[in-house]
Amino acid sequence: MKKVLFSIALLLGSITLSAQNIIPGVTNDSDVRGRLGGAFEWEVAKDLSLEASLEMRLKNDFSTVDRIQTGIGLEYEACKYFNIGADYQLINTHEPGAWERPRHRANLNLEGNVKVGRFEFSLRERLQTTFRTDSVNRYEKMNPELILRSRLTAEYNIRHSKWTPYLLFELNNTLNSPAVVLNYKRDPYSIDNYITRYRAGVGAKFRVTRNHRLDFYYYFDYDRSYNIDYKGNKGDLKSVVQENEMRHIFGISYKFKL
C-alpha cells in the first residue's frame, strides 16, 4: 500500500512542476505520533460558545515533543444545521535543545451538519493562515501560509450508550504555495496549488458525565510538501525535493463543558 501511495505522490509531484520541466527528487519517511489535549467550553450567550484549549504533540515514535499548542476561539450556532467559528492558536515548536520560532495561526470555520436516522454527517471548511516568526525567502516558503482544509465526518449515535463512534476524511489544499522557478531573481513570482495532506481517521467519543467528555482517535496522514532551495547570491535553483511522510497519529482529548 505504501509503495502505491508513494508512486502516486511522485506522479502528482511531477505533474505539479511539469510547467517548468522540473522533476523533483523524492524522500519517503514514516512516523508514529501522539497527541494529548484538553479544552474548556463555556456558553457565553445563547448559541455562542467560547473554547480554550491546550495540546501537546509527540513525534519520532512518541520519543520527542513536537509542539505545544494553545488556542482560544468562538463558535456561533446560526441554526441547527450550520455553525460558524473563528479561533487563534499559538504554536510553540520544539527543536533539538530549545523552544524556538513560535507561529501564530488563525482559523475561520464553516460547518454544516445533517442527521439521517442515527447517523450525523458534517462537513467543515476551514480557511487556515499561519504566520511564521523566522525570516524566509518567499520563493522557498510562504509566509503567511494559506490552506483550505475540508473535513467530512460521520458519527453514529448508539442507543442507550455513552459511546459515539465516528469516521472522518480530510483534505488540505494549499492556496499560496510558491511555484518553482529556475531563477527567483529573474523569473516572476507565482503561486501553486496542490493537496498537501490526505487524512483518514477513526475514533470514539465517550460521555463521562454531562459536563465531561473524552475523545479517543487514530489518524492516518499522508503528507507531502516541497523543500525548495535556491542559491542566495545568484538566485539559481539548487534543488527541489518532494518530501512524503506517512504518519500514524494516536490521540486522547478531554473537554469540560460548562
Structure characterization notes:
This protein is mainly beta and 258 residues long. It has one domain: Porin, CATH 2.40.160. The chain is 6% helix and 68% strand. It has one helix at residues 2-16; strands at residues 25-45, 48-59, 64-79, 82-95, 98-116, 119-131, 145-156, 163-174, 177-178, 191-192, 195-207, 212-230, 237-257. An eleven-stranded mixed beta barrel has the order 1-2-3-4-5-6-7-8-11-12-13. The protein is elongated. The N and C termini lie far apart (44 Å).
CATH topology: Porin
Kindly provide the radius of gyration, computed on alpha-carbon positions and rounded to a whole number of angstroms.
Answer: 20 Å
* Strand line-up across the major sheet: 1-2-3-4-5-6-7-8-11-12-13
- The residue fraction in helices comes out at under 10%
Output the CATH class name: Mainly Beta
Main β sheet profile: 11 strands, mixed, barrel
Distance between the termini: 44 Å
- Helix and strand pattern: HEEEEEEEEEEEEE
Query: How many structural domains can be distinguished in the coordinates?
Result: 1
Strand content: over 45%
Give a topology summary.
Layout (H helix, E strand, L loop, with lengths): L1 H15 L8 E21 L2 E12 L4 E16 L2 E14 L2 E19 L2 E13 L13 E12 L6 E12 L2 E2 L12 E2 L2 E13 L4 E19 L6 E21 L1
Parallel strand pairs: 1-13
Antiparallel strand pairs: 1-2, 2-3, 3-4, 4-5, 5-6, 6-7, 7-8, 8-11, 9-10, 11-12, 12-13
